[in-house]
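Fill-in record for Centromere protein W.
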Amino acid sequence: MAFSTTVSQRKHIKRKAPRGFLKRVFKRQKPHLRLETSGDLLVHLNCLLFVRRLAEESRMNAFESKCGVIKKEHVQAAAKVILKKSRG
């Protein structure tokens, strides 16, 4: 029997937040900032929720313009809408 020449595209999904990386970034950007123990996890969660909302809004923008591919313009328009809603 011959082995298959195709390579699996499946990647391992990390189940944990990159806490060390997040803490290092916070220390570099804002050394005077003091976060409580789970503060970095809340920031990571907020980032994930923002990216998910950005993807959904971008997909809707692409669908409205009858485009099958999400383009840079769709993402930028979605980011403007999301950031306006979060501020006001």
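KEY FINDING: The chain has a mean pLDDT of 86.
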